[in-house]
Amino acid sequence: MSVKSVHSGKDGDTSSSPLSRSRDQSPAEIEELLREEKRIRFKVDLRLCTIAGLLCSLNLLDSGIISSASVTSMLKDLGLEQGNRYSVSILIFTVASVCFQLPATLAVRILGPRSFFASITFSFGLITLCTAFIHTWKEMILMRVLLGIAMSGIYPGLALLISSWYRREELQLRFAFLQCGEVIVLATGGIVNFGLNHLDGQGGLKGWQW
Predict the structure, then answer these.
(1) What pLDDT is stored for residue 33 in this prediction?
(2) CA dihedral sign of residues 117, 119, 121, 123
């Protein structure tokens, strides 16, 4: 079947094609379509960008929380004050994250965004929870490597997901929304960490473990 017959019908009549129907619409109908498009876009913004911004914020909070915990007794408790162990524990996260970004990007295309983001969110939440129960600097390095692997697919995956929902000229504003969420975390995360550090001794845990 030729391309012309697909668009024009069996007898070659082009009046039934979507393009010709859109040209025949009245200004009132076009205005109604534009309002409907804006309403749908707002719903997508509300659901997709909100969840994506929250995920980016958690990513930033979990990856940088070791810096806030370093002002407590964590360095001494884990032996990170010796040599460059603390610097290695920070650097190794970035190395693991960069190395696994490409496999994570391929994984989100194979598994789909729903399964992929649910898996990595559960993974880095569990790893962050387990970090409170480590006892040596080697265990800290291991947790940082696993955390970097779990978080390596967040930004590539979100870029792929958002670009599949919006037109090219709409992407910049949506990515700006994500960055706004990270700025809020940077502004408030230190205050939250300061309060958690004052729970030192509660429940048999040190302040950095909270």
Answers:
(1) 82
(2) negative
**For residues 137 and 142, what is the distance between their CA atoms, to the nearest angstrom?**
9
Residue 27: CB atoms within 10 A of its CB come to 7
For 146, other C-beta atoms within 10 Å of its C-beta total 19
Distances (CA, A) of 90 to 12, 66, 69, 96, 127: 67, 8, 12, 11, 15
Q: Which residue has the tokens 């911004």?
A: 53
Alpha-helical segments (H) within 10-153: 18-23, 27-44, 50-69, 74-78, 85-99, 101-111, 113-131, 137-151
Whether the predicted pLDDT of 72 surpasses 80: no
Mean pLDDT of 76-103: 88
pLDDT (tens digit per residue) in 5-43: 334 444 444 444 444 445 567 777 788 788 888 888 888
| Sequence letter at residue 196 | L
Buried b / exposed e over 153-172, threshold 16 CB at 10 Å, is bbbbbbbebbeeebeeeeee
Q: Which of these, 45, 63, 65, lies nearest to 180 by C-alpha position?
A: 45
The string of pLDDT tens digits covering residues 42-66 is: 888 888 888 888 888 777 777 777 7
Which tokens belong to 119?
A: 């898996």
Q: Which residue from 133, 118, 127 is spatially nearest to 147, judged by alpha carbons? A: 127
> How many C-beta atoms lie closer than 10 Å to residue 93's C-beta?
24
